[in-house]
Amino acid sequence: MRPPLVWLVAPAVLVAAPAHAERYLTLEQAQAVLFPAGTRFTAREVALSAAQVEAIEEDSGQRVREAQPAVWRAEGPSGPVGWFLVDNVIGKHEFITYAAAIDATGAVRGIEILEYRESYGGEIRRAEWRMQFLGKRHGDAFKLGGNIRNITGATLSCRNVMNGVKRLLSLHALALTK
Amino acid sequence: MQFRIVPAGAALVVAALLAPPALADEQLFGYVQGAEPTPKGHQEIYLWLTNRSDKTAGKYEAYDLKLEYERGITDNLAAAAYLKGMSIDTSGIRIDGYMPADNRYGMKLSGVEASMKYAFLRPALDDIGLASYLSFSYDWLDAHSGQDKDKYSVELKLLAQKYFLDGQVVLAGNLGLETTYAKRKPIANLPVNDDTGEPLEWPTDPEMEIGVLAAFGLSYRFAPNWYVGVEALYDTEFETEVGTERWSWQAGPTLHYAEKRWWATLTWFPQLKGGGEKFGPASFDGVAYPGQGDPDLHLIEKTRTEVRLKFGYNF
């Protein structure tokens, strides 16, 4: 019996895959959106020690994948106004790159999705979903399906971005402001 | 957007680019079922193709085809309907009650099925996913011999799924119970066993069977869009006449690839160990037929090797 055509076609279909990489905002655009015009951004070299990684993981309950997080100090005309951080979290298939802004008091100013390579769940870009993080502080409770609304069809993306923000707040509290 | 090689998948790629995003009940495994249901309002079509081959005696090769349409009724409940088909090419095997004749035909419609999946807990939303799966099926071709046989089955499964490392590692487990009512259609001119002088057994009285299965799978995303995994299945069946009719362990590697609108999963699933009923050499109508070549496998209803390719498309 000859094998059906599908056995032969499948490998060809697999290698025919397009590489999705939808870039929604550049770094500079995200900085401009999250902090008012006129703010100056200074890259801050941060190399987390093993003790800091452990402390952040324990505090946030989330794994730290990157010991050298991408961090910028945001400064306005009258001095520091907060922090701008870029982070990657796992989507269902690929990494999601997003930026978070934390103001000088330690509250989230906003988040923006920079690059979305994920196959599903692009709805997390919607403003009403991202707005839920405004004002969140270190130590606040995060509950997907509770105070953070889940998006059907994008649950894993929602969960991982939510946990990412929680981890960044721990990073801010334990490594940037100490 | 970058394309590596375009030719064969052009139509799929175009569809992927044009279609809006949705979530699939994406199946990382060939045999183990995940606990995530298709979300409300989303629809999917799946194509399953399974190759079953090698009974270590004579010639045996069969293909099972399953076309599935699934729709999310609510975020926790999905329903599906299936059309099933099979082809077979077997010769040189005679087993009382199971393999009465050589048989060879191409793909034929062989059965229908309907199922529901209800998630009590969803793996990405809750700490662990837990779902029940209920299916009803009617088959009119015997999957083993390819002969006419009416079979009605009800299957109930408990499905569990857990994400680790933010979803980079997925663990899934199933427990299932299947009850079956089956009735073979009569076959004229059955071959006569040269030792007993009796025709080959092909009982046409109704029979009831109960099957139990346990399965688990572990999948790891080793590159964007790509998962590699391993899965295993313990499958046993009980029948009034013989008690434990069969049991078997199958295990093998799984490769999964997913894109925006479609995914594919390929599983190689050999039988590692099996028992229960076995078949020995026999002579019918003056022709000698060998017994099974490997005593450590169950080869009457199962084969030594299975390969399954699943393809899913979301719309």
Provide a brief overview of the structure:
The complex is a heterodimer of chains A (178) and B (315). Chain A is an alpha+beta fold.
Description:
The complex is a heterodimer of chains A (178) and B (315). With 178 residues, chain A is α+β, with helices and mostly antiparallel strands. Chain A contains five helices and seven strands. Chain A has helices at residues 5-15, 27-34, 50-60, 127-130, 155-176, and strands spanning 18-19, 22-23, 40-44, 70-76, 79-90, 95-103, 108-116. Chain A has a six-stranded antiparallel β-sheet. In chain A, a hairpin with a 4-residue loop joins strand 5 and strand 6 (95-103). Chain B is mostly beta strands and 315 residues long. Chain B has one helix spanning 10-18, and strands at residues 2-3, 43-53, 59-72, 77-91, 103-121, 129-141, 148-164, 169-184, 207-223, 226-239, 243-258, 262-268, 271-276, 282-284, 287-289, 305-314. Chain B has a twelve-stranded antiparallel beta barrel. Chain B has a two-stranded antiparallel ribbon with strand order 14-15. Chain B is elongated, with a radius of gyration of 21 Å. The interface between A and B is large, with 43 and 51 residues.
Write out the strand line-up for the largest beta sheet of chain B, numbering strands in chain order: 2-3-4-5-6-7-8-9-10-11-12-16
Helix and strand pattern of chain B = EHEEEEEEEEEEEEEEE
Give me the secondary-structure category of chain A: alpha+beta
Largest sheet of chain A: 6 strands, antiparallel
> What is the subunit organization of this protein?
heterodimer
* Helix/strand structural class of chain B: mainly beta
Which of globular, elongated, flat, extended, rod-shaped describes the shape of chain A?
globular
Query: Which spans of chain B of ≥5 residues are poorly predicted at pLDDT below 50?
Result: 1-24
Number of strands of chain B: 16
